[in-house]
Amino acid sequence: MLNFFQQHGHPFAKLGNWGRQSVRNFSQATDPLAAYGITPEVLGRLKTFLQAEDSRELYHANPRRIADRLQLSEQQTLRLLVFALKEGIVTLNWDIRCAHCGGIDLSIKGLGELHTHHTCPGCRQSALTDADRAVRVTFSIDDRLRQLDLSADDPEFRGKIDTQYGVVSGHRLLTLQTFRNLFPRETIPPNESLIVRRVAILFTDLAGSTALYSRRGDTVAYSLVRHHFDHLFTVVDECNGVVVKTIGDAIMAAFTEPADALQAAIIMHQQLAQLNRQLQLPPEDELILKIGIEVGPCISVNLNGRPDYFGTTVNTAARVQATSHGNDIAVTGTFLEDPNAAALVKDYVGQASQLQLKGIDEPVAVYHLHPNAILI
Ligand SMILES: [Zn+2]
Fold it and tell me: Is residue 273 part of a domain?
């Protein structure tokens, strides 16, 4: 188990240590965050927050509340908190809300402690551990930095905050690229799976890459492919998604919001068009993306030590991607039922084709969206 996920026990178990010398001071603890590109101004705000805030704000704290306090976006805050986790400034909790009694189990400290079913310590009833409904992430200050007093654990206060701000689901953190990069070994246990009620799965592929390899030779073609991967990885991260894996010249990415996935797809096409111009590639060697997206429920699993997704939504996304002609985005009618995603492309949705997709019984309505029309 990694160091930063070590359980420090319930903070009140350490009350006997009151009066001991503080192990580290706040500046010593927070200064290393500058190496992650955190500006001195944000660092200052974080330091003040950790040092001076009411203790209730630092115990199983809702990241959205922290975002509000630090005047940062949710995405910026989650990144900052993941850096702070890496530096041992905060600890991460995977709190589970019971579907039966509404009680919240605060005892889960690592993904390795999450199981397919969770038994509520309050009412002893068992329920599926939905990564996006039951599990929410909160952060606590590391007690080596500041020991909280008894009043920190205030369920009523936390309940009010959650009602006011909403919660950040466990799945949201699982789709944060920064978390995946810094904690690659943090996964649920092998042979366990978590239900995710809604995830947008995006597949890309490079059109004509086999021909590109044979025309340009492996070294040149691979360097172009690497280049295109760098762009796609950045776009996915910036659009609040995570690259689940690469498969040959293709990527599979996951997003909690369908509109983020669609936005990512649009920017990917835009960036590849730019890249083609920059590299002055002859038309036959231009990098052209084929993209498909689907949204729906999935199961999240640990496959060979890496997080992965399985289920009909993943299969459909892959099949839909295969219908893309290049320079377009193939999505299903189900995907466009998401109002935010539909709003992004509302003026450009043409007729759906009813397609029989391999391995899927019923014909599926597939739309081919043309981002050039969207962008220009
Ligand atoms: Zn319960």
Answer: yes
Alpha carbon of 104 to ligand 1 centroid (Å):
8
Distance 134 CA to ligand 1 centre (A): 11
Residues with CB under 5 A from ligand 1 (ion): 98, 100-101, 103, 120, 122-123
pLDDT in tens, 36-46: 999 999 999 99
Which residue segment(s) compose the domain that 279 sits in? 193-375
Cα angle 230, 234, 235; round to 5: 115
191-203 burial, b for 16+ CB within 10 Å, e for fewer?
ebbbbbebbbbbb
Q: Using the mean position of ligand 1's atoms as its centre, give its distance from the Cα of residue 122 in Å.
A: 5
Q: Which of 78, 242, 49 is nearest to 169 (CA)?
A: 78
CA-closest candidate to residue 58, choices 81, 40, 41, 74: 81
- Residue 341 Cα to ligand 1 middle (Å): 35
> For the chain, how many residues are written?
376
> What is the C-alpha separation between 136 and 120, in angstroms, rounded?
15
Structure tokens at 138: 């909160």
Please indicate, yes or no, if residue 23 is contained in any of the structural domains. Answer: yes
Mean predicted lDDT score pLDDT of the chain: 89
> What are the C-alpha distances in Å from 177 to residues 55, 173, 218?
30, 8, 29
> Measured in angstroms, how far is the CA atom of residue 4 from the centroid of ligand 1?
29
Q: Are strands 126-128 and 193-206 parallel, antiparallel or unpaired?
A: unpaired
138 plus 200 within the same structural domain: no
What is the rounded CA–CA span in Å between residue 23 and residue 57?
Answer: 21
pLDDT digits (tens, 9 = 90+) for 141-193: 999 999 998 899 999 999 999 999 999 999 999 999 999 999 988 888 888 89
330 C-alpha to center of ligand 1: Å? 42
Map tokens 């739309």 to a residue: 367
Which residue among 122, 155, 180 closes a domain? 180
* CB contact at 8 A, 266 and 232: no
Burial profile 39-65: b = 16 or more Cβ within 10 angstroms, e = fewer: eeebbebbbebbeeeebbbbbbbbbbb
